[in-house]
Each structure stands twice: as structure tokens, then as C-alpha cells.
Design goal:
Elements: E1 4-9, H1 13-23, E2 29-35, H2 38-48, E3 52-56, H3 63-74, E4 79-84, H4 89-98, E5 102-105, H5 110-121, E6 126-128, H6 134-166, E7 170-179, E8 185-194, H7 202-211, H8 215-227, E9 238-243, H9 245-248, H10 251-257, E10 265-269, H11 278-291, E11 294-300, H12 304-313, E12 317-320, H13 322-325, H14 332-348, E13 351-354, H15 360-368, E14 373-374, E15 399-402, E16 409-412
Parallel strand pairs: 1-2, 1-3, 3-4, 4-5, 5-6, 8-9, 9-10, 10-11, 11-12, 12-13, 13-14
Antiparallel strand pairs: 7-8, 7-14, 15-16
Length: about 425
């Protein structure tokens, strides 16, 4: 049997002392910390990552339910056991929903508390409550078992994300952003790829990282790998790096940006995390933009938030989402909206980029609407950066666009 690292949290000093004395009688349990409220319990769990957290349900700072939810998010491997004088089914169910895999009434014998700690450490549910009723107890046991399974999957997911951050799983490909008038490469967008099986979409990785509190770390790792290639990009072509609002507000991003020339990098703001305070984002961006870094807003047209970002942050570039670009040649509503947004952008000095261009008809329509730059499979698929020829990038499978005819035409080769 291995050692169990335990954290205890209870606002009543006599109860906390009694619990410490009880677990000291078990030679397999080590107490790594004690807390008197929910906030302190959350911080200790994040700091120590205990195997088991024994939480009082009624403690201050949001109670055991808040502590359980946050500990699950910040320390997914920690198993949570609730300890309470309240044993009504509703309270038990609320703690199970918050993430507890065990629930012990304070009126239970001391051995039951130790048993619940051991069972939880082994990944098993443990509901020890009088007067709960056989049916309710079985239901609570079933719910707690599901929490155990979810926590185990979270542990695996966290390990995989950590491997991507620190190992060689994370790779970078690049997609060209083309001048739709002249046909040359204006910029390249760095896109993360995860080289492991089973293969999952990059956004799935970032979504899971957000759930486990690792989004900023994963985005910074992706940005670092992208910037490793910046010397291969010729002068006059920019590199677009995706970052969420949370990462923008992290000082480590500004430190990373100090390693490159500002004129060659665009920070592309994604929707991976919401913006709770625009002022924080503006403040974090201010110094970087003053140095010459440009800001792009991604996914405009896919929802109201994108337009809100445009209004609040006054970006240098606005990127139309594929949901707006797809079928623009046959949908008058989409073409009308793109025309108006393009006109607005021109008035306030913003550049527009159409994402997801997949057909010649879409390309022709976008050019007719005044969209000057775009990207998509029609123009160039994601891949490695090709070697520059005569100082310019010539992307494989990209197209050169010409306005020399009355109607736009496409011809292969650049």
C-alpha cells in the first residue's frame, strides 16, 4: 500500500485538531496541509496536489461545494471526501455533483473516516451516511463512481496536455494569408498540431487545456514553437500567432514577444476564453502594440462577441469567419454583411482577411466586395514554410490571382 497525501479543511479548530489526531494513527496517511476555509483549501490543493482532500461542507468562503469544484479544476488528480454533520440527501447530492467521491457523516465512527480516505485514494466511491435510505445511498454511490471515472479521464488528459507543453507532441504548421489582388503572400498563420494518437482536433486540445487550467501554458508553448520559425519568414511577410484573452493578460506573453521584431508579428485574438474585463486586455496589449505588434480579431461573423471585440479593442486586422465566407457567392445576406463590414473596416483603417476560402466562386465574390486578403484551402493548405525564392514565399498549391481580365481568373503557380 502506498502513502496517501491528505489535506484537511474545517473551520472548527477542535474538529480540525481531532481529524489530524485521527489520521496520525494511520501509518499510511501523511497530512500535507490544513485549511480553515474554502479559499485556503483551494490554494493548498493547487500548491500540494494531495491524493485526497477531506472537506467540511459548511466552511466559510463558499463552502465545501465551491472548494470541491475548484480543486477538481486546479488539481484533477485529487480525490475529494466531504465530511459533514448534515446528512440530508440534498446536501449529499450537491457535494457529489461538485466533485466529491466520498461523503462521511461526522456522527460516523472514526474508522469509517479512515476507510473513506483509503477508498477514495484507490479510486472508489464511499458514501457513509445514516438515514440516507438504501435507494438514495445507491444513487449517491453511482454518482460518486461516475465522478471517479471522470477524474481518472481528467488525469490522463492532464498528463497528455503536460506532455504537449513540455515534450515533442506539439508541432506547428503554417497557412498563407494571400493578397487577393496581387497573389503574393502577405502573412502566414501559425497553427498548432498534436502529433500523437488518437488524433484529435487542435481545438479539442485547447478546450481540454482550458478545463484543466492549462490553456495559457499550452498557448505559450504553441506560440514559442511558432516563433522558432520566424527567421524563415522573409521581410514584408508577417507571422500570425493565436492567443486567447487569458494569455494576452499573462505577463509571460509580453516577455516572449520581446524576443522577436514587433513589425513581423500579429497577435490573433481567439475565442478560447471569454473577456471578463476589456480594460485588462487593453492594458495588457497597450505596451506590445506601442512597440509595433499588431492585433487581429479572429472569427468575426460567427457571433456577437467577435464584433464586440472589434468595437472594444480597435484591432489592426479583422478576420471573417468561415461561417460568413462559405457560400458568399450565393447568399446575398452574407455578401451584404461582408460588404458593409469591409467598408466599415476601410473607414477606420482596419485590414480585413477572409478565412476559409474554398471555391473560385467565393474568391471572385470576395474580391468584387473589396476584400483584399484571404486564406483557405483554395489558396494554400497548412504545411511547412517553403524556402523563399528571390526573397518571396511561393506556397505549394497556392494560386496567383490576376485582375488583368474583365473577370477574375485563377492560374496555378506563383
Amino acid at each position: 500500500m502506498g502513502r496517501i497525501r491528505l489535506m484537511l479543511a474545517d473551520d472548527e479548530a477542535p474538529m480540525l485538531e481531532a481529524m489530524c489526531e485521527l489520521v496520525s494513527t494511520d501509518r499510511y496517511i501523511d497530512v500535507v496541509g490544513t485549511a480553515r476555509d474554502a479559499g485556503e483549501a483551494i490554494d493548498l490543493a493547487e500548491l500540494h496536489g494531495p491524493d485526497v482532500a477531506l472537506l467540511d461542507v459548511r466552511m466559510p468562503g463558499g463552502g465545501g461545494s465551491r472548494a470541491a469544484r475548484e480543486i477538481r479544476r486546479r488539481s484533477p488528480e485529487t480525490r475529494i471526501v466531504a465530511l459533514s454533520a448534515s446528512t440530508d440527501p440534498r446536501t449529499v447530492a450537491s457535494m457529489i455533483r461538485a466533485g466529491a467521491v466520498g461523503y462521511v457523516g461526522k456522527d460516523q465512527p472514526p474508522d469509517e473516516v479512515l476507510r473513506a480516505i483509503h477508498r477514495s485514494a484507490d479510486g472508489r466511491a464511499s458514501i457513509v451516511v445514516d438515514r440516507l435510505g438504501e435507494v438514495a445511498e445507491r444513487l449517491a454511490e453511482h454518482q460518486a463512481s461516475q465522478v471517479v471515472q471522470i477524474a481518472e479521464r481528467a488525469r490522463v488528459s492532464t498528463d497528455r496536455i503536460e506532455e504537449a507543453i513540455h515534450g515533442d507532441v506539439l508541432a506547428t504548421v503554417f497557412q498563407p494569408i494571400m493578397d487577393l489582388d496581387e497573389g503574393h503572400v502577405r502573412g502566414v498563420e501559425a497553427l498548432a498540431r498534436f502529433m500523437t494518437r488518437p488524433r484529435r482536433a487542435p481545438e479539442t486540445w485547447f478546450a481540454e487545456a482550458a478545463v484543466h487550467g492549462l490553456l495559457t501554458e499550452l498557448e505559450l508553448a504553441a506560440a514559442t514553437r511558432a516563433l522558432d520559425h520566424i527567421d524563415r519568414i522573409p521581410e514584408g511577410v508577417y507571422l500570425s500567432v493565436n492567443v486567447s484573452p487569458a494569455t494576452v493578460c499573462d505577463p509571460r506573453l509580453a516577455q516572449l514577444m520581446q524576443t522577436v521584431q514587433a513589425r513581423s508579428v500579429v497577435l490573433e485574438l481567439t475565442e478560447r476564453s471569454p473577456i471578463a474585463d476589456y480594460e485588462d486586455v487593453r492594458t495588457s496589449l497597450a505596451d506590445m502594440r506601442a512597440e509595433g505588434f499588431r492585433l487581429a480579431i479572429d472569427d468575426v461573423g460567427s457571433g456577437f462577441s467577435g464584433l464586440g471585440h472589434v468595437v472594444e479593442l480597435s484591432p489592426d486586422l479583422v478576420k471573417f469567419d468561415r461561417s460568413l465566407v462559405g457560400g458568399v457567392d450565393t447568399d446575398t445576406t452574407k455578401s451584404s454583411l461582408i460588404a458593409r463590414l469591409t467598408s466599415f473596416a476601410a473607414e477606420v483603417g482596419m485590414e480585413v482577411v477572409a478565412e476559409g476560402i474554398e471555391t473560385a466562386a467565393e474568391l471572385d465574390t470576395l474580391r468584387a466586395l473589396g476584400v483584399e486578403t484571404g486564406q483557405g484551402f483554395l489558396l494554400g493548405r497548412p504545411g511547412p514554410i517553403p524556402e523563399p525564392i528571390d526573397g518571396s514565399l511561393r506556397w505549394p498549391r497556392a494560386y496567383e490571382m490576376s485582375r488583368s481580365e474583365a473577370q477574375p481568373t485563377l492560374r496555378t503557380g506563383t
